[in-house]
Automatic annotation (TrEMBL):
Homodimer. Forms a heterotetramer with IscU, interacts with other sulfur acceptors. The active site is at 326 (cysteine persulfide intermediate). Its cofactor is pyridoxal 5'-phosphate. One of its GO terms (cellular component) is L-cysteine desulfurase complex. Its main location: cytoplasm. GO terms for biological process: [2Fe-2S] cluster assembly; amino acid metabolic process. It is an enzyme of class 2 (transferase). Keywords: 2Fe-2S, Cytoplasm, Iron, Iron-sulfur, Metal-binding, Pyridoxal phosphate, Transferase. InterPro entries: Aminotrans_V_dom, Aminotrans_V_PyrdxlP_BS, Cys_deSase_IscS, Cys_deSase_NifS_bac/arc, Cysteine_dSase, PyrdxlP-dep_Trfase, PyrdxlP-dep_Trfase_major, PyrdxlP-dep_Trfase_small. Its EC number is 2.8.1.7. Residues 5-366 form the Aminotransferase class V domain. This is Cysteine desulfurase IscS.
Amino acid sequence: MNRLIYLDNAATTQVYPQVLDAMLPFFTEHYGNPSAIYSFANEAKKAVDQSRSTIADLIGANTDEIYFTGGGSESDNWALVATAEAYESKGKHIITSKIEHHAILHTCEYLEKRGYEITYIDVDEKGTIKLDELEAAIRPDTILISVMAANNEIGTIQPLKEIGAIAKAHGVLFHTDAVQAFAHIPINVDEMNIDMLSASGHKIHGPKGIGIMYIRKGVKIRSFIHGGAQERRRRAGTHNVPGIVGMGKAAELAKANMDNNIKNVSELRDYLIKRVLDEIPYTRLNGHETNRLPNNANFCFRFIEGESMLILLDQNGICGSSGSACTSGSLDPSHVLLAIGLPHEIAHGSLRLTLSEQTTKEDIDYTVDKLKGIIERLRSMSPLYEDFVKNHKE
Ligand SMILES: *Cc1c(COP(=O)(O)O)cnc(C)c1O
C-alpha cells in the first residue's frame, strides 16, 4: 500500500516540474536583487517583469496593477485593512459574505474591534450570495464589498459580474478573494468591475509563500508592509524572485491549458459525484451542481463524523479534507456548511475532495471503492445509524 491519491488540491498543489525548472536558476545563478542598478541584476528584474505581465494578462489587467505579496492571506489582509484606512473619511462600513475564507473573516473581526462595521451577507442553500441582500446592505458610508470568487470548501462560483455591477452602480469598491478561482476559471477584472483581487501561487501548481494583489489604477490604498520602495512603494520587501518566477510560470501553463483543464477535470469531478451519490446512501452534494469549481466535490454523509473518515482514507493513501477541525483543532462544523443551512450533525460528516489535472479515473475509482467500505464500516459502528435503520424498518 504505497499508493498516494492526492485529492486535496484546494489546500495546496504540487509544484509542476516546469515551474520548478523555471525557478531554480534564480536561486543560484541569477540571484541578484531586482532593485539593484548593476547589470548582473537584470535577469532577475526581467523575470519579475515577465511574471507580472503574464499574471496581468490572465485577468485582463495592466502590468502595473499587479503587486506581488507573500500569499493569498497577505493580499486579503492588505485589501481590507488598507482600504479601511484609506477610505475612513468616506465611511467605516464594509460588506462581505458569511462563507469567506478566514483570511477575510478574521481580518473583518480585527476591523470590527477598531470601530468598523461589517455586514455579512447570507448565501442560499447552494452557496450563492444573495444579490438583493447585498444591494440592500449598501449605505452611504459603505466603502468596500469583498466577496470571494469561488468558495474553497464547497466550490460554488459567485456571480462576480453582477456583484461588480452593483458595486459600481453605488460607487463602492469591490475586492474579490480569487485564490481558488484564479488560473482555474476565466476572470476579467474589467468585465467584472473588480477593483482588487487576491490570488496565490500554491493553489495553481506554483510555490507557497507567493501571491499577488491586483489593484485597479486609481484605488487609493497604500502600503501594508512598510519598508523599501519595492512594488511602486506599495509593498516593501526584497522581491521573492524564485517565487515570483514560479507563480508566473504556473499562470502561463494554466492559461495555455485552461479550456482543456476545465473540460477534463470537471468531467472527472462529475463522474466522482455521480458514483458517490449513486453508490453511497444518505449522501448529499454540497454546493452548486453546475456552477462550481471544476475540481471541487464536497459531500455530507449522514451518521458519519468527518475526522474518522479522513483517518481511514489516509490509511488507504487518500488525502481529502473535512470542513471541520481544519482550523486550530476545533471541532466546530464549517461556517460554510452552516451558512448553506445544514444542521450541525450533518455538517460534521463532510468530505471535500479536490482534483487536479493529474488526477486519473483510476484514482477516482479507487477512492470511491475505498470510501464505500469506510462509510459502511463507520455507520455499522454508529448508534445513530442503528436507530435510524430500526425506525425505518417499522
Ligand atoms: C488558500 C486560500 C487563502 C490563503 O492563501 P495563502 O496563499 O495560503 O495564504 C485565501 N483564500 C482562499 C479562498 C483560499 O483558498
